[in-house]
């Protein structure tokens, strides 16, 4: 039943998630909510018809708010992915480091980047400066997140182009309030 490499009509959850440029957790939520049709194998594994995934990608799935979560803390990424699914039609992609974020900013084309400041390699300050210095990406909203909300860090990330810097642990209501107006604008 493999799909991408063989051209067969069924895709595994990982293949379908890669095609839609979202996390597999996002795909599961869409399937559980009935937004994306899934089939179950005799062994209990979920599979997606390539045709259904393509239709979803070009239809309803492509119109929602697109959020890129960039954080090296996997548990927070999973939590935020689940939280953002509460905003109808939201598509989520994730990156665990600044280098991957740079690639996904161009491939996924997010409306908003939720960006951790402290990561190995390219940190959030560098990623934000790159996003805001490129004419093709400078329109992307950057919402910074940090467990180290010192006045210096907040000043540095705002100077790099972020619109706000939220302290971890995040206030869910505040984050959703920042995203909800833009999500409403993007809905078909």
Molecular structure report:
- The chain has 188 residues and is of the alpha/beta class.
- The chain is 44% helix and 18% strand.
- The chain contains eight helices and eight strands.
- A five-stranded parallel beta sheet has the order 5-4-6-7-8, sandwiched between helices. A three-stranded antiparallel beta sheet has the order 1-3-2.
- The protein starts with 9 loop residues before the first strand and ends with a helix.
- Residues 1-6 have low confidence and may be disordered.
In terms of structural class, how would the helical and strand content be classed? alpha/beta
Number of helices: 8
Strand order of the largest sheet: 5-4-6-7-8
| Largest sheet properties | 5 strands, parallel
Number of strands: 8
Radius of gyration: 17 Å
Query: Which fold does the CATH topology of the largest domain refer to?
Result: Rossmann fold
The CATH homologous superfamily of the largest domain corresponds to Response regulator
Order of helices and strands: EHHEEHEHEHEHEHEH
**Cα-to-Cα separation, first versus last residue:** 33 Å
| Proportion of residues in extended strands | 15-25%
CATH class of the largest domain: Alpha Beta
**Overall residue-averaged pLDDT value:** 84
Helix content: 40-55%
**Overall outline:** elongated
What low-confidence regions span 5 or more consecutive residues with pLDDT below 50? 1-6
Can you tell me the CATH architecture of the largest domain?
Answer: 3-Layer(aba) Sandwich
How many separate structural domains?
A: 2
């Amino acid at each position: 039943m493999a799909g991408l490499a063989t051209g067969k009509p069924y895709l595994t959850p990982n293949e379908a998630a890669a095609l839609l440029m979202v996390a597999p957790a996002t795909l599961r939520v869409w399937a559980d909510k009935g937004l994306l049709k899934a089939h179950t194998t005799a062994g209990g594994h979920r599979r997606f018809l390539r045709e259904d995934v393509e239709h979803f990608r070009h239809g309803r799935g492509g119109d929602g708010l697109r959020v890129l979560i960039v954080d090296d803390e996997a548990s927070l990424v999973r939590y935020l992915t689940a939280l953002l699914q509460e905003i109808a039609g939201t598509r989520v992609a994730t990156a665990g480091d600044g280098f991957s974020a740079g690639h996904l900013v161009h491939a996924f084309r997010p409306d908003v980047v939720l960006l951790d400041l402290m990561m190995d390699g390219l940190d959030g300050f560098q990623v934000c400066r790159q996003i805001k210095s490129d004419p093709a990406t400078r329109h992307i909203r950057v919402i910074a997140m940090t467990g180290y909300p010192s006045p210096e860090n907040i000043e540095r990330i705002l100077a790099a182009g972020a619109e706000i810097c939220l302290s971890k642990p995040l206030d869910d209501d505040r984050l959703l309030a920042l995203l909800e107006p833009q999500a409403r604008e993007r809905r078909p």
